[in-house]
Design a protein that fits this description.
By secondary structure, the chain is an alpha+beta fold. The chain contains 4 helices and 5 strands.
C-alpha cells in the first residue's frame, strides 16, 4: 500500500509527461475527403449510386429531373463513385470534413433539372430526303442497298 501511495505522490509531483496532440495532423497527399458533386455537369445517370457499396449516394428520379443525395456518415471514402462518373462531375475533397454534432448534419442534396438538348440537335438519324441524296447517308449505296 505504501508503494502505491509513493507512486501516486511521485506522479502528482512530476506532472504530465504525455506530449500534447497537434490540433490537426498533416493531411497525406492521397487523402480522400467528402464527395462533392457539380450539379451543372451531372447527368443523373445513377452510376455513382450503383457502385456505392455503402449506399451513401442515392439518385432519385423526379418528373422534371432528379435528386442527388450524399450522406458522408455512411460513406467509406473508397472513391468508386468518382472513378465511375462518365462526366467527371464527382470529386473528393482534399480536406477533412468539418466537426459536426448532429447526425446527418453533413448530408448533401442537389435537385437538378433535366438537361435539354440544344436547338438544332437531331433527335435521331436524318431521313434520306433531308440528307440531300442517298450517297450522303452513311451505309446506303447507289441502288438503296445497305452496305
Amino acid at each position: 500500500m505504501k508503494s502505491i501511495l509513493r507512486l501516486l505522490m511521485q506522479n502528482l509531483r512530476d506532472g504530465s509527461i504525455t506530449l500534447p496532440y497537434p490540433e490537426r495532423p498533416a493531411i497525406q497527399s492521397n487523402f480522400r475527403g467528402m464527395v462533392q458533386n457539380e450539379p451543372e455537369e451531372c447527368t443523373g445517370c445513377g452510376l455513382c449510386a450503383y457502385v456505392c457499396t455503402s449506399s451513401a449516394i442515392t439518385v432519385l428520379r423526379v418528373l422534371d429531373g432528379f435528386q442527388w443525395n450524399y450522406d458522408p456518415g455512411q460513406c467509406t471514402f473508397c472513391a468508386r463513385c468518382t472513378q465511375r462518373c462518365p462526366k467527371h462531375a464527382l470529386t473528393m475533397e482534399g480536406t477533412r470534413p468539418p466537426v459536426y454534432q448532429l447526425r446527418g448534419a453533413l448530408r448533401q442534396s442537389h435537385d437538378v433539372k433535366k438537361k435539354k438538348k440544344p436547338a438544332g440537335t437531331p433527335i435521331g438519324p436524318l431521313p434520306i430526303e433531308a440528307a440531300g441524296s442517298k450517297d450522303m447517308v452513311a451505309g446506303i449505296g447507289e441502288q438503296g442497298e445497305v452496305r
